[in-house]
Amino acid sequence: MQGAIMPAPHVYKEATLATMQPEAGDYGLIPNAALVTAGGKIAWLGPIADLPKPYASVSSTNLAGRLITPALIDCHTHIVHGGNRALEFEMRLQGARYEDIARAGGGIVSTVTATRDASEADLLKAALIRVDALIAEGVSTIEVKSGYGLDIDTELKMLRTARQIAMHRPVRVLTSFLGAHAVPKGANADTYIDDACIPALKAAHAEGLVDMVDGFCEGIAFDVAQMTRVFDAAKALGLPIKLHAEQLSNIGGTQLAAKYNALSADHVEYASEADAAALAKSNTVAVLLPGAFYTLHETQKPPVAAFRAHGVPMALATDWNPGSSPLGSLLLSMNMGCTLFGLTPAEALAGTTRNAAQALGLADSGTLAAGKRADLAIWNVATPAELSYGIGINPLHARIFAGQAT
Ligand code: DI6
Ligand code: FE
Question: Is 3 helix (H, G, I), strand (E, B) or coil?
Answer without folding.
Answer: coil
